[in-house]
Design a protein that fits this description.
This protein is of the alpha/beta class. 32% of the residues lie in helices and 19% in strands. A nine-stranded mixed sheet has the order 14-13-12-11-7-10-9-8-15. Strands 3-2-1-4-5-6 form a six-stranded parallel sheet, with helices on both faces. The chain is globular and about 60 Å long. The N terminus is likely disordered.
Length: 435
């Protein structure tokens, strides 16, 4: 890849709705030890230097969450493909409760294809929040540099990319680096207790699972006349399978990860899925689907019935449902509402520390206490679970776990450069092939 000069600022700043979601202050929730346990910090300093790669709404939110996670952490470097994204991120961070710990000099603002390299070299901890296509490459560079990392979900858009992440996470473990995943529900204390009770037999033997992520659409960026194909697809990345993995991978992965968690991180044996686009059909929505329905099956016969949709621009309000259920021989668990019914009744309110902050509390405590966390196994399996469902819907075929592990299909442009980049055709079952 070649470095690039910054294009003229264009496009909208990160969404405030995306940015502030889940970023309630966790003041007083973190106890910081007096001495550092890692050699990566400057001698005599208790400050942990944090850098963000990918300055959109989620990345900027993650930066605020990171500063909630440790009272002596500072944001000192930002990297993005576009300069205006960096400036928008700083502006948003300066309007938060952590503004006094945002210390990014002009020298530590990195723009272009290689921006991640500059951030990695300037910090102790890296937050990765770029479009998912770039996650395998960026995570590998972070681990090779010996830096701790918060890695947003998903960890790739195709099987080869995720398999490379598997190898990288093993290297992180060998180097005693902390790697925390952005699959944040696993850091929600109330959901942890519900899942622990399921594992302890509170609902008996699991029969079936059911999960829905039926919601509205997310943001999109209106294409500007001066944008090349590549710039448009990078700025509007949610809507191009090569960049996002489609919304079943980019968003519904949260639901699928909870199901995998209930199944003790044993992946499903196979999946059959369908999907398409019936509402979100305008050119601005690229080539992704707007709904998926999937049925996963495990080797023991347990099935997970899964639905997700992002329907936007409708004249009338439609119902939404974000829920996760486990049905057993002795009860039912409503995981999202922290409730179990049946022989062992249980209900718990929301966790005291929001999950977006809690995952960063865990990250920095692990670093300071010298007890590394590595979430690599489940973040890779959940990503592959979502990809296999997408490929089943795209192709119309049943896809097995062995098949997705053996898939050779790589998504993305041949070259990382600005200019023409034709939009790939929308997948049509029976025509689109799984490789």
């Amino acid at each position: 890849m070649q470095p690039m000069s910054s294009p003229s600022p264009s496009g909208s700043r990160p969404s405030r709705r995306d940015f502030v979601r889940g970023s309630a202050t966790a003041a007083g929730a973190v106890v910081v030890s007096a001495a550092l346990q890692s050699a990566v910090y400057a001698a005599g300093s208790d400050v942990i230097k944090v850098g963000l790669v990918g300055c959109g709404g989620r990345g900027t939110g993650a930066a605020q969450n990171a500063l909630h996670g440790d009272s002596n952490a500072k944001i000192v470097a930002l990297g993005d493909m576009f300069k205006d994204q960096i400036e928008g991120s700083i502006l948003n961070l300066k309007n938060t409760d952590v503004a006094d710990r945002v210390a990014v000099t002009d020298e530590n603002k990195f723009v272009g294809w290689d921006a991640y390299k500059g951030v990695i070299g300037a910090v102790d901890v890296v937050l990765l929040a770029t479009p998912p296509h770039f996650r395998p490459m960026h995570l590998k560079a972070v681990v090779e540099a010996g830096k701790h990392v918060f890695c947003e979900k998903p960890v790739g858009v195709d099987a080869p990319g995720v398999l490379s992440v598997m190898a990288t996470t093993k290297q992180a473990a060998e180097k005693n680096l902390t790697l925390v995943s952005g699959l944040c529900y696993r850091y929600d204390d109330s959901k942890r207790e519900v899942v622990d009770r399921i594992h302890d037999g509170a609902i008996g033997q699991i029969i079936n699972l059911h999960t829905n992520y039926l919601t509205t659409g997310l943001w999109y960026k209106q294409r500007q006349p001066e944008w090349s194909d590549m710039e448009w697809q990078l700025r509007d990345w949610l809507y191009f399978t090569w960049a996002s993995g489609d919304h079943i991978v980019e968003q519904h992965i949260h639901s699928l990860d909870k199901m995998l968690w209930v199944m003790k991180d044993q992946p499903p044996a196979k999946v059959i899925a369908s999907g398409g686009r019936i509402v979100r059909t305008a050119p601005q929505f690229g080539n992704v689907y707007d709904h998926f329905n999937s049925v996963f099956e495990w080797a023991d016969g347990v099935r997970c019935f899964s639905g997700c949709r992002q329907w936007t621009g409708l004249k009338e309000q439609i119902s939404q449902d974000v829920s996760d259920w486990a049905y057993g021989t002795e009860g039912t668990a409503n995981i999202q509402q922290h409730r179990i019914s049946g022989k062992q009744k249980f209900h718990k309110g929301d966790a005291k520390v929001g999950m977006y902050d809690a995952e960063h509390v865990a990250l920095f405590n692990a670093i300071r206490n010298g007890k590394p966390i590595n979430n690599g196994d489940y973040m890779c399996k959940s990503t592959l679970m979502a990809i296999m469902a997408r490929e089943s819907a795209y192709s119309g075929k049943v896809i097995t776990w062995e098949q997705i592990l053996a898939s050779t299909e790589k998504l993305g442009p041949e070259k990382y450069e600005f200019g023409p980049l034709p939009v790939a055709p929308i997948a049509v079952p029976g025509t689109s092939k799984f490789t």
